[in-house]
Write a structure and sequence with these properties.
InterPro entries: DUF3500. This is DUF3500 domain-containing protein. The protein has one domain. Strands 1, 2, 3, 4, 5, 6, 7, 8, 9, 10, 11, 12 and 13 form a 13-stranded mixed beta sheet that branches. The protein has 348 residues and is an alpha+beta fold. The N terminus is likely disordered. The protein is globular and about 60 Å long. Helices cover 37% and strands 18% of the residues. The protein is built from eleven helices and 13 strands.
Amino acid sequence: MKVKINAHTIKQAAFTMVCLFLLGKAEAQDISKKANAFLQTLSQELKEKTLFTLEDEERYNMNYVPMPREGVTFHDFDETQKRAALDLLKACLSKQGYEKTLEIRSLENVLRTIENDDNDKMPDGRPRRDPLNYHFCIFGTPSPTEVWGWRFEGHHISLNFTSDDGKIVSATPTFLGSNPGIVKEGDSRGKQVLKKESMLGFALVNSLTADQLKIAKFSEEAPPEIITANHREAGDIEKEGIAYGKLDQAQKKTFMKLLQVYVGNYIFDFSETLMAKIEKAGIENLHFAWAGSLKEGKAHYYRIHGPMLLIEFDNTQNDANHMHTAVRDLTNDFAEDILKRHYEMEHR
């Protein structure tokens, strides 16, 4: 029996692997070792602030604004503890993903200078704009065989990981934001942390024909925020926009580059697994939808939406110079699907 292999499918798979490699391949590793190494550096008091049960509702308390949070922060760490904490973060992200977290944190200093408000304080008296005010929480007991999770969160960052059998099995919801979107003054002038997310989105929408744009653009006004916000569940979002299959070959290539920017933020083995899951659900079932202006500097929004995936990008605040992005696995945010099976097995 002869099996026909579609040439486009081969090219697409090859393109996927090349993109993931270029984004920073790293060997798969048991992240529980990194988590336990981090915990071993902490005093009992700091451990108590860091550790929660896997079932604790705090695990679902995702947010990305300056606010009081649970967990230890960089303020609590000496250099050894800081290094161990960052080693855990590096073990879960690609090089590009990790660098984005550093740059987003550094924007807190930019905001503090721009806003120049010495009275803008958190309840603990620290500045509201603070690159050290990012929190580490661990849910459950880090183990190479059991399910556990951890979170890294602060202003414009929310990274939620779940591990089982030593591997990351869920890394969503993921939120990364940037304010300013483009730094316009000071020593960091010109910095644009989410540049690829913005430029490739514009490149794709502005490559559409008039007829394609009628399908892709669902509103003249951009929503004021990503639609999923910080909700535990993404909810039912209407599938709008133009289907992948309705794009020409050049547009498909841009679409895939844009998709890879988001998928490529995670460590290679999870990025590869997530992409395989997206492909199994069908690249042809993904839609690209746009709202708002087609030009930089004015409010705009886009999303990539499919059977199991939702990616959102929004740039509406601060005269469209304040970007929010989110990635949601509609079947497994917070590892809901895996935990459900895990608890069912335990009850048996």
